[in-house]
Prior knowledge:
heterodimer, A: mainly alpha, MetI-like fold, B: mainly alpha, 2 strands
Amino acid sequence: MTSIGQNRWLPHVVLILGVIVFLFPIYVAFIGSSHDAPTIARGEMPLTLGPHLIENYTQALESGEGARVRGTPALTMMRNSLIMALVIVVGKISISLLSAFAVVFFEFPGRMFFFWMIFITLMLPVEVRIIPTYAVVADLGMINTFAGLTIPLIASATATLLFRQFFLTIPDELVDASQIDGAGPMRFFWSILLPLSRTNIAALFVIMFIYGWNQYLWPLLITTSRGMETIVMGIVKMIGTGDAQTDWQLIMAVAMLALLPPVMVVFLMQRWFVKGLVDAEK
Amino acid sequence: MKRRTIYRHKLLPYLLLAPQLAVTLVFFFWPAGQAIYQSVLIQDPFGLRTQFVWLENFQIVLTNPVYLESVRVTIIFSTAVTLLAMAPALLLAVMADQVVRGASGYRTLIVWPYAIAPAVAAVLWLFIFHPSIGQIGQGLRTLGIPWDYRIDGQQALLLVIFVSAWKQVSYNFLFFLAGLQSMPKTILEAASIDGASPRRRFWMIVFPLLSPTTFFLLVVNIIYAFFDTFGVIHALTQGGPGRSTTTMMYRVYRDGVINLDLGGSSAQSVILMTAVIILTVVQFKYIERRVHY
Lengths: 282, 293
């Protein structure tokens, strides 16, 4: 869309301004995590790196305890977040692959009924039914367990629809050929369908990992013990009333640790991230 | 969607579907059913007796000025978030589409905030807008603006709107950019030859051609503002000061988790579910037909 007479530099100026608005809070958080509490509490934090960087991150990772903040060690919280995110990702992808396989490659009574049953879950995010879902999880005795933290979030139709869409593009000839070679349905699934779905799985992995890692309200309700806290909810607990006189340097260090893994995933797997995002919303 | 070649097994397809159906039934249909069931019951304060009350819970909720206030806050909040998340995203996407060199670099630098959790975004901006220690918070006070979102309801609302929108711009940017890049270049070149100015070309050609993307994003952003922003509000203002940032979603949480009013909270959940279903149906049916392709 470039044309003569248009400003050549205008797009760059606007884009650089946009990038600055996005990077600014991260920069300030990083600087904040390198100073000590009194400097920040006095409101005298400069916008340059302070001398306490390594000390603050060590403290955040290993104890999470400051002069005024009693947190959980960030290492524990990051481990919990990682387990939660990975179980959600693997769970969602596996059950969706299986159910999409059933819906596309089999003929059986009730096929469309089951398909619609899954499809309808697409419409309702977990937040809408949060209280009754919590009650169900409590009835099942799954409070404070990784099962309670993850399994309810695995129920989602997005991945199933995506795999269904992809499976429908697989030529019949491929299925015929595998049948002639004597492969049964499960053999076809393992040896042909799964390898073909690699890119889709990678794309979904990125999106679902971010979704899982960033869960907030659900872990807030399900976890009541310190050892089960995830980092995204743990950090909000650290803020408390948000006074000036608190260990902001620790909070900022934990904030950096909370956003680093999903941001790294987006950076390193950008190609799949974009594909996953666009596909998932089709 | 019929395939020519299909497998015929009696049991296998059901086994394959079983895990997904089990999870869906236990954690989706059961709780959704519970919500509807609870919404027509009233429990006494000790939980000893429950009474079937038809739609009384809904009547109580919908005539409660506190709830109506949260509806008002939700409308203002989601309209503002949607506009503020979409307009800058469109501007950035149009600019990125014009850049010949370094376009993918810009895309990388603009797209990553999508990966930040709303609650973490709130913490980052809290540190900046804090009235006594934040860089911008202090700056505003130096300028003579009595900035303190912890006591001023309007400032609190502005702040949660800003943070919620900030986090969503990158998502919208990605979709707008994809829409712009798949646009037929020949039409634009023809208009350009006919002497249409860049501004005119944008509003007469590009914007109408983008309308499917725009409407899709409109629905996604409204749903985002309704539900995903819970973390932002909870971390920044906890619905306050007063009730100035209590949205309908935050109300469900307050009434259900803190006030333990199961009937009222369930009725609110049902109202929200209805709203989301209507939005989704509108997206699928109405908009698809009316939008210019």
